[in-house]
Amino acid sequence: TEPSPVLDLKAEYVGVTSVNLTWAVNDNASNSYTYRIEVVNGTSVRNLTSNVTKAKITELIPGTLYNFTVFAVVNDDETEGISIRLYTKPSPVLDLRAEYVGVTSVSLTWAVNDNASNSYTYRIEVVNGTSVRNLTSNVTKTEITELIPGTMYNFTVFAVAADGQTEGEGVSVRLYTKPSPVLDLRAEYVGVTSVSLTWAVNDNASNSYTYRIEVVNGTSVRNLTTSNVTKTEITKLIPGTMYNFTVFAVAADGQTEGEGVSVRLYTSKSQFL
């Protein structure tokens, strides 16, 4: 077998089910060559041919190790082959969602359909503004801790093949962590038909918060919202009646609420009864 005139075999593109190979030839007679490309995965062997110094190989299995060998064919004789080994990219993960959203932690789950997925690991990119953190998981779920309360995060999950390097396309979910419960909730004023409440918040993100105030009297429930001020006046109350007031901090999405904090009190009795 003649030495191979094929040089510089490389993958110009690696996809989920396809790979583009290119190579060079150091022979003046190369315009008369054809090329055999042997595609090996485990015990599976497939042969392709090309008349040019490149080939697109399709119908590959995601996240799987392949050995590609290129032989130059000259007058029905083959030279030695030159090989490259690489993994195809894993498919993107499926059904990424938050199973739990807390104040400083989030639990994510996802699924994978690839046959090779039992060899995968996962990279989880955690982005908040300009802050980027990377975590890894060997299973299709992860708990991410040390998050900032009431803050928007972008979580992106990448499946990683068994070489620890070849990554699939990332799939993302954006969400807010829950605000912390409000602090020091108290009634600053209690009147006959109105109550003034105040509270405090310590979260760094609190300048973007709004607040929901739940006003409960027996089976009657009323909800009020405030802008980002930590006080409210509640009117149209019944004299001499017990109320339960619960304040929830709400993140900037207008939906993600912290745990409620409550105060129970009676309005004043009317002087004219």
From TrEMBL:
Coiled coil: none
PANTHER family found in the cross-reference section: RECEPTOR-TYPE TYROSINE-PROTEIN PHOSPHATASE ETA-LIKE, TENASCIN
Organism: Fulmarus glacialis (Northern fulmar)
Residue span, Fibronectin type-III domain: 5-91, 92-180, 181-271
Native organism taxonomy: Eukaryota, Metazoa, Chordata, Craniata, Vertebrata
Protein name: Receptor-type tyrosine-protein phosphatase eta
Sequence similarity: Belongs to the protein-tyrosine phosphatase family. Receptor class 3 subfamily.
Keyword Repeat carried by entry: yes
Keywords: Receptor, Repeat
Alphabetical list of InterPro entries matching this protein: ECM_Regulatory_Proteins, FN3_dom, FN3_sf, Ig-like_fold
Pfam family, any one: fn3
